[in-house]
User: Fold this.
Amino acid sequence: MSSRTLPLLFINLGGEMLYILDQRLRAQNIPVDKAKKVMNDIITTMFNKKFLEELFKPQELYSKKALRTVFDRLAHASIMRLNQASMDKLYDLMTMAFKYQVLLCPRPKDILLVSFNHMDAIKDFVRDTPSILNQVDETYRQLIEIYTPLSAGEFQLIRQTLLIFFQDMHIRVSIFLKDKVQNSNGRFVLPTSGPVPCGTQVPGLIRQFSCTGEELKRLQFCNGGNYSSALREGSFEMFGERVIKLGTNMYSVSRPVETHMSGTSKNSAQHTKVNTAPNPLAKEELNLLAKLMGGMEMQRPANTDSGFRVNLFSTDEEEEQALISRPQEFSYDVINIQATKDKQANAELAKIMGEFGATGDAAPSASSKGDDLLAMMDGL
Assistant:
């Protein structure tokens, strides 16, 4: 498992979330000023300096529920509100879109170009707000500094870590089904045509060499596909053409997007339900959430009447039906953590931490990943 995966997962999922919300805000004819406030508030929270300092620290990837809790809070960082069914659909669309992009990346390193496509689009959302644009640019610089020196092997480990995270998610998305890139069981179709990865040749030729390096023999074979020569490599600089289209906004042309649970996903959910063994990372996940959420400066509207609800379904009836029909295992009960120096909240969290300790967990050493939860929160 790569300890450098979490920032890429968060930024790419966040980019997909912004694409979807932008499309829904336009589809529901939300006033321009309110829509802009929502996008600005979410991006400001997403690229908060303290938040990103914690995010970019090398660490293991956390559970789906822990990450979902972070995105639930992020989606509600402004005056917009989503009910449970819409939030579930939003998260499904985000995760399946990025899973598709990771699967179809020609090379593991191209995951960084996918991330840059998301970052370019996010910059475009806030191009008229210099203060927020500076926050995004700073994150851009961090991505370039940390990830461009990594080897092909390190990017392959990042890709494997992401695929392990996504492996049980087989939710059908109407856009993918219509474009014939997803099967009815929720699994994606890997193409056997198009350009080969940069730095490689079209398969179909075997060459044999002697021990001195002299070519002895050539053998051609049918590769079973319709491949073409590689495209030029995309730019890994802050400004430049990425060439690869994965990670760009697929909602720029408005069309309805539906999600459906596949039979495979339902079976996976049932299997997950049976597995009730305690999670040894639960304590560390509490530490992560406290540190990440503590860095999220939430924007609360002064007048509660100014808030509005966004529906990711065509009608309210569809939304209500989706909430009823969704398997319970795929709906997340969100835990709200007040990450402030509040005595009562600290006492409650201390009690929770004490319960974890009572189950027989060893006391963390000085070299363990996190300090005490409350001490970390006090330091924010």
